[in-house]
Amino acid sequence: RCYDEMGVDVGAAVPLTPSQVARGDCSPDALQNTWGAQSAAMSCIAGGESGCRPSLPSGVDRTADGQSFSYGLYQVNMSVRPIQCSNFNGGASVNCKAAFVGTNYKATVQDQALYDQCRTMLQDVQCNTEMAQKIYQQQGFGAWRNTATNCGLL
């Protein structure tokens, strides 16, 4: 499903049309410089993942101790990968996996300060988008399987 700037469901995104993708900061026009030919598709992904709310913690990707492990426009999972963004930590990678014991739903937070640092990074639009680009290059739309399916991309 895709959502407008107010978080209102605007329906399934098959085929992707302007009324079915996110608006505002997540509109295809806003994403054109970043995503090029994939801007409409990634608009739908961002709309479906976060409702285009960059600081949104996942409501479903929760650790065993109840903390979100996915954040931001593209709901990047920080329990399974380092985070590397040009606008944080001098562009150096931060080992966010080390904030956790385990991964995904079985994880628990062992280093709250590191967790907080990684959360802050992923709540930043530029950082989250850079990470989403890296993930897309490695996994394609499959990284967002449920949302991509709802967007008609898989």
Structure description:
The strands form three sheets. A two-stranded antiparallel sheet has the order 1-2. Residues 1-8 and 10-20 have low confidence and may be disordered. It starts with a strand and ends with a helix. The protein is α+β, with helices and mostly antiparallel strands. It has helices at residues 28-35, 39-50, 112-122, 125-139, 145-150, and strands at 2-3, 9-11, 70-71, 76-77, 100-101, 108-109. The longest helix is centred in the C-terminal third of the chain and has 15 residues, at 125-139.
**What is the distance, rounded to the nearest whole angstrom, between the alpha carbons of the first and last residues?**
13 Å
* Biggest sheet features: 2 strands, antiparallel
- Overall morphology: globular
Count of DSSP E strands?
Answer: 6
Number of helices: 5
List keywords for this structure.
alpha+beta, two-stranded antiparallel sheet, 6 strands
Which SSEs are present, and which pair or pack?
Elements: E1 2-3, E2 9-11, H1 28-35, H2 39-50, E3 70-71, E4 76-77, E5 100-101, E6 108-109, H3 112-122, H4 125-139, H5 145-150
Antiparallel strand pairs: 1-2, 3-4, 5-6
Helix pairs in contact: 1-2
Quick description:
This protein has 154 residues and is of the alpha+beta class. The protein contains 5 helices and 6 strands. The strands form 3 sheets. It has a two-stranded antiparallel ribbon.
